[in-house]
Amino acid sequence: MASVFKPEEARFPTALQPPVPPVSKFKIALCQLSVTADKSRNIAHARRAIEEGASKGAQLVLLPEIWNSPYSNESFPVYAEDIESGDGAAPSYSMLSEAARSLKITIVGGSIPERSGDHLYNTCCIFGTDGSLKGKHRKLHLFDIDIPGKITFKESKTLTAGQQPTIVDTDVGRIGVGICYDIRFQELAVLYAARGAHLICYPGAFNMTTGPLHWELLQRARAADNQLFVATCSPARDASAGYIAWGHSTLVGPFGEVIATTEHEEAIIVEEIDYSLIELRRSNLPLQIQRRGDLYKFVDVQRVSHH
Ligand SMILES: NC(=O)CC(=O)C(=O)O
199: which residues sit within 8 A by CB, 6+ positions away? Predict the structure, then answer.
């Protein structure tokens, strides 16, 4: 199950050697999917992509952010699923669980709008090879940005932020999860590294303004700073959509190197992850023991609110 973090731990992460992973090499599939307004089609389409990834040897499949619904504040309430109800009213969630179980793979299920009581979340569910839910990550940092003339989006109009970082032990190693805007907050990645993550998965849908400048830069920075693997998965680009995704799903290694990437069309990347590279890079550049934690402890600062 997902580890629970106390706030004080989050402020002062203590370094941990990553545990020996259950596998040292395995294949990951990044399914960059087209997303339409037809939810049933999106679910069937994602199911086929997962199967294709597994048929090419992937033991871990990663899906995009908001793959069952258009990415808009109008759509989130309409496409949302109550994944805690267990009454079969969560077809996206059920499909992921069934696919993980029948294909015997781990799935980091991108994200879907989740309804819980009166709240909506942008939620990633992680399933083990038996189909069980290993963890659930609700986007921690909501995407509220305003770049006049370029892009304005306010997820907080409809969504509520999650309250827990999410790190899970799976058959393919210890995985930290963030969703899209979460990648901009380096502290989260530092925390996952400190908790022994081998890989951080970020389902994400960057856009045509920030994507070209920041998408790859942030992934490589999170990977190189923390000397671990980073995998991202975006929806494919739809130039007619209200929100146009940048695409470019990518796998980055612990030296900050891009191992595999794609353009903006639909694509399934299947690529090897070799965890021995983590140890190699950490011995090449022993950042963890060179870190001057005595000089830069996190301090509490009052949040500044923007109006
Ligand atoms: N869509 C997001 O959550 C993030 C994004 O597009 C950005 O940070 O830029």
Answer: 172, 173, 174, 175, 176, 228, 229, 230, 231, 273
The DSSP secondary structure of 219-273, one letter per residue, reads: HHHHHHHHTSEEEEE-PPP-TTSSS-B----EEE-TTS-EEEE--SS-EEEEEEE
Tokens of 192: 């996952």
Q: Give the DSSP H or E segment for 40.
A: helix 39-55
Spatial CB neighbours of 29, under 8 Å, sequence gap ≥ 6: 49, 50, 52, 53, 54, 56, 58, 60, 61, 62, 268, 269, 270
Q: What is the pLDDT of residue 307?
A: 47
CA 25 from chain center: how many Å?
A: 20
Which residues does the chain have with pLDDT short of 50?
8-13, 307
* Nearest atom of ligand 1 to the alpha carbon of 71: 1
Dig out the tokens for 296 from the structure. 């830069």
Contact 62, 233 (CB under 8 A): yes
Give the span between the Cα atoms of 33 and 267, in whole angstroms. 7
* ipTM value greater than 0.95: yes
Q: What domains appear along the chain, each with residue ranges and CATH number?
A: 25-286 (3.60.110.10)
Looking at the CA of residue 209, tell me the nearest atom of ligand 1: 9
Distance 166 CA to ligand 1 centre (A): 19
Please name the residue whose Cα sits nearest to atom 3 of ligand 1. 181
Pocket of ligand 1 (CB under 6 A): 143, 180-181, 184, 205-207, 210, 214
Q: Compute the distance from residue 130 Cα to the ligand 1 centre, in Å.
A: 32
Hey, whose CA ends up nearest to atom 6 of ligand 1? 206
* Amino acid (one-letter) located at 18: P
pLDDT single digits (tens) 126-160: 999 999 999 999 999 999 999 999 999 999 999 99
DSSP, collapsed to helix, strand or coil, labels residue 92 as helix
The catalytic residue positions are 65, 139, 180
Nearest to 232 by CA among 269, 195, 266, 207: 269
